[in-house]
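RESIDUES AND SHAPES:
===
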Amino acid sequence: MLRIRSQFQALPESASLKRLGEASVGTFGATLKMISWNMFKARRAGCMPDLTTLTAGVELALLQEAVLHGGLAHPFHLTSGLEWIMAENLGTAQQAITTGPKTGSRVAALSSQAIRSHDREPFIGTPKTFLLTTYPFCGQHLLVLNVHAINLVSTAKFARQVEQMVTPVAAHKGPCIVAGDFNTWNTARWHILLKSMHDVGLTRVLAAAPQWRHFNQVLDHVFFRGLKLLNARPLTHVKSSDHVPLWAEFGPDSA
């Protein structure tokens, strides 16, 4: 396979999750506000001010292509009032900068796990990772999957990673949120994802924004189960990434 030399390389599978910052409350309130956003590795001006503003008003933040410098918590992590857990998927040759999914919560996680795709993307030969965390919510355990789906591979390989996602969801008995950048840039990928999520009882939040740089398709989604959707919208005013943040608010399922 032809591979292109990239600034970022896959880190060893044994690389541990990074915990950054401290949770500021013991339990969530009656509702749970969240964002999901692919940060584009914070390449654009204004990304960090936007992130600071976005996270100030939520209890849960799911970031894809987040970056970490030097492997240590930075002032943002320490002052945000959120516990951040990051799955370092890729790193520079000097290991000074890493990138991957990062989940922040005002309540400390009960558990966390990173799961890498079985397959690797072509050209640079790197996998994609999604991050599982669980939290106490209204007397139950809330399972959260922060997803960055594999790209530029066959439909069958995409389906293999989607199967990795739905396996823990199917086994979980409580409420779930599955959100992130699913790279659903064609109809085949979209149908696989939607059917797989539906098969494990997840409903898609009807708030999205087409990405003009990605065939004008919707790549970012939020799915949920065992919760009541109260409100949701794409935050189209945020321009500091090539992805639009998605905002949603949930309450406990009254059914």
